[in-house]
Amino acid sequence: QVGGLGHQVAGRHGDLLASAGEVRAAIRRMRHDPVSARLASDLERDCRGYMRPGSPTYIDFREHRRHDLWEKRQGHWSLGRALQDLAWAWRFTGKARLADHAKNILLRLARDRHGWRPLGCNYGNPYHGWLNDNLLDIGHATLAPAVAYDLLREGFRPAERAEVAAYYEPFFYRVLNHRYYGVGNPGHNFAPVGFSGAGMLALALMDDIAPTRRGILLEVLAWAEAYARFTLDTVAGSDGAPVEGSGYGSASLHYMALFAEGLRRRTGRDLFKHPTWRRFARYLVWETLPGGGAFNNFNDNHYQTHAGFWPLGSRRTDDQTGDWVWWHHQGPGAPM
Asked: Residues 259, 196: contact at Cβ < 8 Å?
């Protein structure tokens, strides 16, 4: 239970971001709605690449020949995306090979303790690994695997679940070493990204950590919610203009949106009531350059940035502005 409020967070799996009924509804839309069908086709295409030897995106969990995946800091982005994509594609299609490939990637990470050791350099400085270097990369290394594991958990044997839990449990202790980082850095992306990832992981692993050690997960959840609320207060002004620009600001909201949805479903705590979600979306509309597909590159905005979470934000805030942002930047309305 979280914060003594009586919210039950254990005993549930596979619904962090979508219920079984919602998945069935999405499958029906893929059969009839052209946009959904296109997204499903793109997802299956990407998954074929992750599983096909010789593909530039092949996830070679056995061979470890891809230096960019296994010997560099940035591997967490490619591995995380592949895990999420494969897990969702399995939920949509029921094809066992998709789940098997994702499961094998997760188990390889766990058995190798990947990311615990140094991984080359980061901007010219020795990089100590996902676990031991910085708060930002704890989030990058945990959020997507948490989503994938929750979707796939029932296909893991008890001993395999224990392996995954043993690999990720130190990330909870490490993230709390950074618990005060964001206090002196309001609006900065490290704390919301790091704690949102670890918070999502806590929700996913709640039943796989022994009850006598489960307190650390509840503490992480409390800090993750606190930093989400603090970030929503500080990431942007009253007009929605982000203090770090739309690029880094959107990265914070992207991670927080997924954690917020998991938290809402598992505990009833609703972070989407905060007005920043609506304000930020409107600001992105104002800063969209004529023709769509790019933002005004002001204050480190970047011309393109995270927009895939906005349909979720629109549903939860009952404000369709976020849908417009997605449609014109990463959806069918974006320029080719």
From this structure: yes
Q: With 0.85 as the threshold, say if the pTM is over it.
A: yes
Pseudo-torsion of CA 313, 319, 325, 331, nearest 10°? Answer: 70
Best CA proximity match to 195, nearest among 213, 218, 214, 172: 172
CA distance linking residue 238 with residue 222, whole number of Å:
26
pLDDT mean over 106-135:
95
- On the question of pLDDT at 76 being above 70, the answer is yes
CB 245 within 8 A of CB 298: yes
Per-residue pLDDT, 5: 36
Most distant pair of Cα atoms in the chain: their distance = 57
Q: Is 269 left (phi over 0), alpha (psi -120 to 50) or beta?
A: beta
Q: Which of 179, 205, 200 is nearest to 191 (CA)?
A: 179
Tell me the mean pLDDT in the region 251-260.
97
Whole-number pLDDT of residue 304: 82
